[in-house]
Amino acid sequence: MIAAGIIALIILIIVLLVLTRTIKILKEYQRVVVFRLGRSIGSKGPGLLLINPVIDRLNLVDLREQYFEIPHQTAITKDNAPISIDFIMFYQVIDPVQSVVAVQNFSGAALNVAATTLRSVVGDMSLDDVLSRREDMNSLLRLRLDEVTERWGVKVSNVEVREINPPPAVQDAMTRQMSAERTRRAVVTESEGQKQAAVTVAEGQKQAAVLAAEGQKQATILAAEAERESAKLRAQGLSDALEAVNTNAARSDANVLTLQYLETLRQLAQSPSTKFVIPAELTGLVATMGQATRAAMEVVQPSTNGKSNLDKTPSIN
After folding, report:
1. How confident is the model over 29-42, as pLDDT tens digits?
2. Distance from C-alpha of 49 to C-alpha of 32, rounded to nearest angstrom
3. Residue 175: band (very low, low, confident or very high) from pLDDT cuts 50, 70, 90
4. Per-residue pLDDT tens for 43-70?
5. Which of 97, 185, 188, 253 has its CA 20 to 30 A from that of 237?
6. Rounded-to-integer distance, Cα 149 and Cα 103, Å
7. Where does residue 160 rank: exposed (0-12), middle (13-18), buried (19+ CB within 10 A)?
8. So what's the pLDDT on residue 143?
9. What angle is formed at CA 70 by the lines to CA 65 and CA 71, rounded to 5 degrees?
10. 3-state per-residue secondary structure call for the chain
């Protein structure tokens, strides 16, 4: 009985071992490349997998995106400047069979390919381009590495340069250049500030001058308007006065006018001046006075003649 129990226990252990080697459970991101009698029969997974532990051999492959750090590599630029660069390569297995069959050690192969590719890319660029065009260098590295790893069933998704260390002499020159650039920017900024201040002051003065000119213009216009209104009023007053004089003159008797002319002539006669301005109406006045004188003489002469005749008539006694 004891021997039978031991034999049953041994058989159970063997069955469990066979089952553990026969049944495999793979996760979603895992694949296995199955080699049966040394020949690849493809990739299996995910989920439950049954294999023959005697004739089958498995290689587990991870399909998740992974990264690989490339340590500092010394490269020489196009203008013969040695620099040290390190970067990170992100990759993903897209063909599990090729990733196992086509390359023995992907990590070692990727390290060597990345180092040679980096030297090739940097050798075609100047130091200034390496320092300023990092995105372009990342793209070139990704394309070059992807061309090589594609035949291994691996896709290089991204390459990121982490650090670029130029030689000390170049670093000193860059420091001086940076200081000079900052000084230049400070001077330019100060000049721009002064320029803006001067422009602002000039604009203010211009606006003030325009406002003053506008004010002077308005004042001149108002003064002209006032002068014009005053002239209108004076002209209107003079017109009214002349109209009143004409009205009064029309209402006055001609004899009154004659007396006024005579009074004026009397005043002229009393004046010590030797030159007189005689109005044109004086001739009419003289003619009028002549007519009046003749009429008076005609009235006086008949009365005189009648009286003399009476004197000559003899008296009858």
Report:
1. 999 999 999 899 99
2. 10
3. confident
4. 998 988 888 888 999 999 999 999 989 8
5. 253
6. 10
7. middle
8. 93
9. 145
10. CHHHHHHHHHHHHHHHHHHHHHEEEECCCEEEEEEECCEEEEEECCEEEECCCCCEEEEEEECCCEEEEEEEEEEECCCCCEEEEEEEEEEEECCHHHHHHCCCCHHHHHHHHHHHHHHHHHHCCCHHHHHHCHHHHHHHHHHHHHHHHHHHCEEEEEEEEEEEECCHHHHHHHHHHHHHHHHHHHHHHHHHHHHHHHHHHHHHHHHHHHHHHHHHHHHHHHHHHHHHHHHHHHHHHHHHHHHHHHHHHHHCCHHHHHHHHHHHHHHHHHCCCCCCCCCCHHHHHHHHHHHHHHHHHHHHHHHHHHHHHHHHCCCCC
Q: Rounded mean pLDDT of 251-265?
A: 63
Q: What percent of the chain has pLDDT over 90?
A: 26
Tokens 């216009």 correspond to what residue?
Answer: 221
Contacts of 92 (CB under 8 A, 6+ apart): 63, 64, 65, 66, 154, 155, 157
Which amino acid is present at 292? A
